[in-house]
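Slack export, channel: ligand-projects

TW: morning all. Re-posting the request from yesterday since it got buried. We need the structure predicted with the small molecule present, not the apo form. The ligand is zinc ion; the SMILES is in the block with the sequence. No rush, but it would help planning for next week.
GE: picking it up
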Amino acid sequence: MLDPEIELMRTDKLRKLQEERFIRQVRYAYENVPMYKKRFREKGISPDDIKSLDDAHKIPFTVKNDLRDHYPYGILAVPLRDVVEMHASSGTTGTPTVVTYTERDLRTWSRLMGRTYSAAGANSEDVIQNAYGYGLFTGGLGFHYGIREIGAMAVPTATGNTKRQLKMMKDMGTTVLACTPSYALYLGEAAKSEGYDPHEDFNLRIGMFGAEPWSEEARKKIQDTFGLRAHDVYGMSELYGPGVAVECEHQNGLHIWSDEFLVEVINPETGEVLPEGEKGELVFTMLTREAMPLLRYRTKDLATISWEECECGRYHPRIMRIRGRADDMLIVGGVNVFPSQIEHVLMNIDELAGEFFQIVIEGEILDRLYVKVEVDPKHYESDKYDEAKLKKKVEDELQAVLTLRARVELLPPGTLPRTEGKAKHVLDLRKKV
Ligand SMILES: [Zn+2]
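GE: finished. pasting the full token output, ligand included:
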């Protein structure tokens, strides 16, 4: 454990620490970020009204568009000369969102990432292959800083060049793999087709997988392929990057590092704070960030939170796995469909390579839902493969879960594009009004 005093802090002490930091941080944001001063005034409140954590609900939310509207430096609370690093979202859907860090922010982030590795069981003996993108994306450097923090060895392969990834993994004796879960699935497949025996040739024991939601089925597949323990890592660039929360060795929910993050769960429609254990949208306040303090940041991630003590001895509350993003939900012919439901069905059919799928929605008047999925390579080659029969089976099982009929297309193994970053599972071709 990297910071036992903080990591094992009991709930009452942790809440007290959060409260002190929260009250201070609210005032800091108000005094140094004009956007917050303006919003507080519009709501008729001042930092004096925030006396405890129970007053948090009085503070207006911050959303991703606020970052875009204040591009590039509008939410900066310090002079630019105190900023030592920035990152940015890809900006594929418009203006990128920029995040900035002071030296102290980078120290905090490194420490959080160090704790994140250590909670998953990594230590200074490990050889950690970091296959997240180094660059403006927070994943690469975030996972890198954590490696430095625990004194392990970094193999900074970054994304891409899969053959070289596999060669490094074998030759360097990589013990910890950090990448997106979809890339881990692809690496497993590529390893086998390159003639590696992942259990024999690789020395992997831990996986650090984040930056996209993934299912229990995907976890099982990655664990079985490589013989490692796969940990879910949660974060987002607006909140430093990765390292907000991680699964400990018990893999039963993701501990939120609550000395640095205050979490609330809200009803995404009304904005009202929900009691513990109810499912809603996660909202985070960063408790010590200097360069870009964010108050009540809406993540659009839907989950429940548990404050129960974990078997590992930590009291930091746990996200009981992300159940999908509010904006991932598709409405097809009036029915709510989550891509994760479709993935769940596909991955439980043995004849399929269910992790390789694509959802296509078309339609001008009536929506049509297509699901393209690859057949398992062994099944595809076997005499038992009956395309029409399997297609019907998949359509029936999807209908049972989705309550609507999807048209299924079975694809030969290796047809769909493989990704080095986040998988693109949904193609919505409907004309937006
Ligand atoms: Zn735990």
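GE: first-pass observations. Residues 248, 250, 255, 310, 312, 314 surround zinc ion (CB under 6 Å). The longest strand covers residues 352-362.
TW: perfect, thank you
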